[in-house]
Amino acid sequence: MPDFSIQGKIAIVTGASKGIGFGLAKAMAAVGAIVAVTARRKESLDALVEEIAAAGGEAKAYELDVRNISQIRSVFEQVAQHFGRLDILVNNAGLGEGMLAEDVTEEYWDDMLDVNLKGVFFCCQAAGRIMLAQGSGKIVNVSSQVSIVGIPEGVAYCASKGGVNQLTKVLALEWSSRGVNINAVGPTFIYTPGTAEKLDEIAFRDGVLARIPAGRIGSIDDVAGAVIYLASPASNLVTGTLLVVDGGWTAQ
Prior knowledge:
Elements: E1 10-13, H1 19-30, E2 34-39, H2 46-54, E3 58-63, H3 69-83, E4 88-91, H4 106-134, E5 137-142, H5 155-175, E6 180-187, H6 196-199, H7 202-209, H8 220-231, E7 242-245
Parallel strand pairs: 1-2, 1-4, 2-3, 4-5, 5-6, 6-7
């Protein structure tokens, strides 16, 4: 029978202080994973660690700016040393602010690519080195539906997420034979405290819903289900792929 359990697995979730990352860390802890949560400010993770502990789970917070390559390596080594291994990485940290192409500045472009693509790769590399040495591991990169379709004001964001898909494929080719699976999830618009203001605008929400055949905005639980599947033994033959969680948006 398929094994969907991640009970007792050691997981890192980046960008966990709010939004999807916050919810993913809670969901993974709820089904038994021991979660190392990271954010640029360690204190911003206090509420998350407390919520997980109150629900009977286990979490430990680490300060991590994914633009800082030496800090990535240090934090991942700390996690592996503290817990004795690293089983799962969920690369969630990212930027998402839109901008018209003609207004994009070099600073904006560099910030978007540094966090959404460069940071993702070097987190993969740091986790991969640990996982390859132990002969096992699961990496799940949080991509987006707009990694395969475009949206206005998304030139840098779409480019960064398209890059995530490609690095996911290449790392799968290099690492899968050595026990490390790497995949990506591609969510549609997900309702979070950060997206609520925009999605609560009737015109904007109606425009989004018109593109989703399933007829609803996504929830964090929708994304968590895909992540937990890809992190579990049930997905052992799944590697180098993008699992879209978009209600059919990209099927059109």
